[in-house]
Amino acid sequence: MNETNQSRVTEFVLLGLSNSQELQPFLFVIFSLLYLAILLGNFLIILTVTSDSRLHTPMYFLLANLSFIDICVASFATPKMIADFLVERKTISFEACLAQIFFVHLFTGGEMMLLVSMAYDRYVAICKPLHYLTIMNWHVCVTLVLVPWCVGFIHTTSQLAFTVNLPFCGPNQVDSFFCDLPLVTKLACIDTYVVSLLIVADSGFLSMSSFLLLVVSYTVIFVTVRNHSSASMAKARSTLTAHITVVTLFFAPCNFIYVWPFSSYSIDKVLAVFYTIFTPILNPVIYTLRNKEVKAAMSKLKSRYLKSVSEAKFLQP
Prior knowledge:
The chain is mostly helical.
């Protein structure tokens, strides 16, 4: 035990996205721009929803929370990945590695359940429109946001419990741009077959159960929408299309990584980039380009900003 403690790994080496030194400056520019777009796009949605009273509805309240959690998903590892493009040896301390594992499962687990909350909101709005405001009151909306965070916390705590006490005394190279749980556990100095199965079972249960809930809810909604042809139902179809696109983009890579444990790590690396970078940047695009109310609110916000700027210039001596 003393020898294990003395030789315990204190840091991990992240192999990153590419070993090519020539590609590092190019990747630095590309992912810096993508991360900036994620921050600006999602902050713009949050600002638009909070500043326009017409958007103070349950759907947009949940949408603003989705933008916030997308910022969190993109921020737990992306800034370090971008900084690592500028250094030759990409290292991360043992404690920071565990922190990344904690946050990735907290945020992704929370986003899964938040998407379920959004599906429930659409179910009530379309299938029970006369009782919508009664059912989706303020307390229910807050609960639909708090429950995903609680589920994400329970999920990530259970995942981290599998890892925190594992002995790491040898290999320390993680073939990814952040500490992903399956990649870190395989570096332990003991047989982790059982631990890997528990990790897959835990993540797989949350991912698949959330996905099945979404499939059932959207199936019920589509059956309801199909039997109506009014203008409101046409708007509902447009909203549903946006929601289903987001769900597909987010759940497909997560399910492939954690539900199907025999995929190659090179594929997992590409999928990890997809759900940590591309999904958070696509969510604002999908919702803003397909939603007239959000675009109108953004135009109003832009006009208000330009007016304040012009007034400030006019008042300058």
